[in-house]
Each structure stands twice: as C-alpha cells, then as structure tokens.
Design brief:
With about 100 residues, this protein is of the alpha+beta class. About 40% of the residues lie in helices and about 30% in strands.
Length: about 100
Amino acid sequence: MNSLRTISVLALIATLVLAVTGCQTVKPGESDLKNRAQTTIGKPVIKVSNIRSDFNTTFYTAQTESGEYTCELPSGPMVALGSMGMGLGAQCTKQ
C-alpha cells in the first residue's frame, strides 16, 4: 500500500515538472521579447530582430529611437523550472 502511494506521488511530481518546464521550452514570441526589452531599457522598442536561441538563452536585437541594443533572455526548460514559470527579465546592452 505504501509503495502505491509513493508511485502516485512521484507521478504527480513528474507531471507538475513537465507542465512547468513546458511553459518556456518554446522560443519566446516577438511581442514578449519586445515587452521585456522595453522594461529593461526603459524606452519604447520599435522592433526586435536577429532572434536566435540556444538551449538556455534567447538572443536578439532591440531597436529604439536612440539606437540598437543587444539583448539576452534566459529561456528553456531549466529556467522555467528554476523560476517556477514566472519568467525572467532581459539583459540588454547598447551597441
């Protein structure tokens, strides 16, 4: 009886982990990248371009009226698990 409960608890935990990590496994959308860059830079972003991703980070360029910024946004399953699905802010530097 005790082993059945352990298996049920482990299955529930595995399901929750998959649900949380699945939220940010997909590359963030352009509007999400734009909003996160605007929050970090503090200026309106006209457009985002040059979007590329590796396993843990999404890289992109954000263009404002005052110039371009190179941005990095943590993404991927480990970030989703570590941040509990809350999402993290972008880090941007002026080019």
